[in-house]
Amino acid sequence: MSDTFKDRIAAYTERVDQGLDAALPLSSTSPKRLHEAMRYAVFNGGKRVRPLLVYAAGECLDVNAELLDGPAIAIELIHAFSLVHDDLPAMDDDDLRRGKPTVHIKYDEATAILAADALQPLAFSVLVALQGVPDRAKNRLVALIAEACGSTGMTGGQSIDLAAEGRSLSATELERMYSLKTGALIHAAVISACLLRDDLADSDVAAIDAFGREIGVAFQIKDDILDVEGETHVIGKLAGADQRLGKATYPALFGIDASRQRCDELSSSALHHLDNFGDSAAPLEWLARFIVERGQ
Fold first, then answer.
1. 5-293 sits in which CATH class?
2. Contact present, 192 and 139 (Cβ < 8 Å)
3. pTM of the complete model
C-alpha cells in the first residue's frame, strides 16, 4: 500500500469509474439518447470526492474496499442526479458544469430531467445488489442514502436554497441549509462505512458522524468562496453565478473573511473528532484538507 491516501486516489477513482460504467446502461441500448445523457452526466470529469470519502472512511475503520464499492457508486450516482437537476433553468440555470456544457445544454431540458430521474433509482438498484453484505446492512445503507437525498436532506436543502434567494439568513439558518443541500450526502458517504461494521464502539460512530456533518458544511462554504474568487476556467462553471441569482451565501451575507474563518473553524473541529483514530484517520484528514484548500 502507498504511503499516503493521495497516492491511492487514482486507483480508487478508477475503481469507482469501472463500477459506474458497469452499472450504467450502454449508450447503444434503447432509449439511446437517454442512456447517452446519463453517461454524460456521470462521466464529465468529476473529482469523485464523495466516493473517495467512502473509501477513506473505510480505511479509517478497516472495512474491505470491495464492500465499499456499492455505496461509493450509489452515492456518486445520486450526486450526478442532483447536479443535473441543480443546473436546470428552473433551478440555478447553469450552462457549464466542470468546464463542459450542462446536460440540458448538451441535449435538451426534457432529456436532462429524465436522465437525472433515471440515475436516482439506479443508485438504489446498486445497493440492493451488493454481494457479501448482510441484508440488515443493505437496508441501513438504502435508508441512509434515501434520507440523504430526500426532502429532509439534499432535495429539501435545495428547496430552502431557492426560497432564500434575495433574502437574508442568519448564520444558523444558512448552515442548516448547507447541512442538507450539500452536507447530507457527504455525511452519508462517511457514515456508509460505519454501517458495514456491526462491532464499532458508539464513540467511534459518533466521531465519524460529527466529522461528516462539519466537513460537509465546510465544503459548501468553500464552494461559496470559489464562486466569488474563482475563475470560470478553473472552477468549471460560470464564476459569480451566486451573486447574479441573489443566492443566500456565506460571502454574500457575512463577507469573504468571515467565510474563510468559518470554513477553517469547521475544518479544524472536524479533524479534532478524528483524534482517537490515530494514524488510521490520515485518509480522512487528507481529504478534509483538500476540501477546504482546493482552488488555492
1. mainly alpha
2. no
3. 0.94
